[in-house]
Amino acid sequence: MIEPELAFADLNDDMACATAYLQYVVKHILENCKEDMDFFNTWVEKGIIDRLNDVVEKNFVHLSYSDAVELLLGSNKKFEFPVKWGLDLQSEHERYITEVAFGGRPVIIRDYPKEIKAFYMRQNDDGKTVAAMDLLVPRVGELIGGSQREERLDHLEARLDEQNLNKDSYWWYLDLRRYGSVPHAGFGLGFERLVQFATGIDNIRDAIPFPRVPGSAEF
């Protein structure tokens, strides 16, 4: 995982950083790995170079979670997993949004229901959602997940209570807020997913540098 954390940042800063990071990486690949990309374009995924160029050149779509649910419900497509406000989006939903609804453009979905997100994500003023975001790309679905962190001690304690988490176990985390904090945000990017997206490889297991198989974790 690639996990930057930004001080004095809100969700908008977080989304801007995630966008700039992905565009920088893709642009670097296109400019410095032409021979490799020609190989992938010929033998793995036809049109992958055009797809990556779109990431660099086109604006990302921004969508709230509520709007994403409405879009899926209005698609009349039969999904394996149900679509309902309050349920997390599955990979099939994410891929439909980015591949079909928006023609292959990356999509950032924001403001998820607080019940399906971690306690440390900052609660929005509506009391129902949190300042969280997921960046979706074709073929993969979620590539980046991030949020603005909750810097208000009283809100953080309330969220721990709501999720029936033992506050004594999080004393050190609460102390970070109790003795001074600043607005901050961050995200995590799955490196193997990035490799899968950039190369057109179908199965993520082929993008993992060290094989992981059942029974192989000896320590």
UniProtKB/TrEMBL annotation:
- Extract one GO molecular function annotation from the record: asparagine-tRNA ligase activity
**Swiss-Prot/TrEMBL keywords:** Aminoacyl-tRNA synthetase, ATP-binding, Ligase, Nucleotide-binding, Protein biosynthesis
Where is each Aminoacyl-tRNA synthetase class II (D/K/N) domain found?
1-213
Q: GO cellular-component terms in the record?
A: mitochondrion
Q: Name one Pfam family in it.
A: tRNA-synt_2
Give an example GO biological process.
asparaginyl-tRNA aminoacylation
Question: Does Lipid metabolism appear among the keywords?
Answer: no
What protein name does the entry list? NS1
**Gene source species:** Arundo donax
